[in-house]
Amino acid sequence: MTVSVSLTVNGRPVSVEVDPRTLLVDLLRQDLRLTGTHVGCDTSQCGCCVVHVDGHSVKACSMLAVSAEGAEVVTIEGLASADELHPVQAAFREHHGLQCGFCTPGMIMAVVDLLRTNPDPSETEIRQWLEGNLCRCTGYHNIVKAVAAAARTVREA
Amino acid sequence: MYPFDYYRPTSVTEAQAAFAEASEAQWLAGGMTLLPAMKLRLAAPLVLIDLAGLDDLNGIGPVDNEVAVGAMTVHREVAGSERIRTAIPALAALAGGIGDVQVRNRGTLGGSVSNNDPAADYPAAILGLNATISTTRRQIVADEFFTGLFDTILKDNEIICHVSFPVPELAAYVKFSNPASRYAIVGVMVAKRGEDIRVAVTGAGACVFRVPELEQALAADFTPAALTGLEFVSVGLNEDLHASAEYRAHLITVLTRCAVEAALGW
């Protein structure tokens, strides 16, 4: 069986025929070649594959592509404008919120979702929000610092 | 994942027709348990019927003496709902503590309840708050719904439509989480509605259960002091690398005391 799925990805309408067992992350990476969304654990623990579906962060390895029918999906590739990083991306660079960078796309997508709902998060709120995102390099300290800085930039913008 | 056919009906009638036609079909709600299980090939339905298109199953009703929550309502909506935060703050807090943000954005009330994971949070809310589960066939009271490990009274083709939570006078849920998964090693919902006192425990047994000894003590005196000296026997409790049965038994009384304090606003 193949199922037709139509969705918007980073503002662009997309229609694809997929095997129903195709995960959203595989549609993004393999069909659309949007490889910024990473697959870390593939067991919904690590958060490397976080994207936005209708404005909310989800783990794209734990959602079927067919379940995204009609949805607006935003990936890490959809955040920056032409030549300017998104404030959260800029803050991660500025505050050294990454080392190997593998978890970073998922971290950043989760943080963008946080700042949409809570523009002034406390350190505790930041750490709680990022419970579903694992980073094996940084120890999280600079990630939390980057998020607080990004929140300030977004508030003052 | 093994291959499967996929349908996304737009009405309950259409969903049931699809289920009746299929062999080895399974309902898909938020998929936060089912999809990982299918990826590990622990589950392999031949047909997946996605309930996401059933708009009637989504949303939170007005507050009367109770609040009805649609089965497809995601945890984020329950946690953030003004109605629920005002009427049953313990339920909003419980939903806001399930898994991580991304699980709460996809996972649903109906999915969690019908899966009946022994360490899931929602079963404690259903049993502790004495909720009624409305399905496509009938209304089921909380005390009859959960029947064992990953087992409920639901028939295979039955769909939960909504769950009605009576508004308690006082209630609180406290859990001791597994730091990695956020599943409850033990979680306790304590609720008081008139003379009706309920203590529902998740994470400690094959599925959620009530503790009559603790309920009777609290019915006589709804304070933490009423629990002094009461101990729960560890026989038959879950035991794994996270916690021994004795440790879980100890947590039941400790968390019940914490939940009573929280319910009283201490």
Outline the structure in words:
The complex is a heterodimer of chains A (157) and B (266). Chain A is α+β, with helices and mostly antiparallel strands and 157 residues long. Chain A has two domains: 3-78, Ubiquitin-like (UB roll) (Roll), CATH 3.10.20; 87-156, DNA polymerase, domain 1 (Orthogonal Bundle). Chain A contains five helices and five strands, in the order ββαβββαααα. Chain A has helices at residues 24-31, 87-94, 104-117, 123-129, 141-156, and strands spanning 3-9, 12-18, 50-53, 56-59, 72-74. A five-stranded mixed β-sheet of chain A has the order 2-1-5-3-4, sandwiched between helices. In chain A, strand 3 (50-53) and strand 4 (56-59) form a beta hairpin. The mean pLDDT of chain A is 97. Chain B has 266 residues and is of the alpha+beta class. Among the domains of chain B are: 1-53, Uridine Diphospho-n-acetylenolpyruvylglucosamine Reductase, domain 2 (2-Layer Sandwich); 170-263, Enolase-like, domain 1 (2-Layer Sandwich). In chain B, the strands form four sheets. Chain B has a four-stranded antiparallel β-sheet. The longest helix of chain B is centred in the C-terminal third of the chain and has 19 residues, at 245-263. The radius of gyration of chain B is 18 Å and the shape is globular. Chain B starts with a strand and ends with a helix. The mean pLDDT of chain B is 96. Chain A binds chain B through residues 1, 3, 19-21, 42-45, 47, 50, 53, 56-59, 62-64, 66-67, 69, 110, 113-114, 129, 131-132, and chain B through 1-6, 8, 28, 31-32, 35-36, 38-40, 48, 50, 52, 76, 99-103, 105-106, 180, 182.
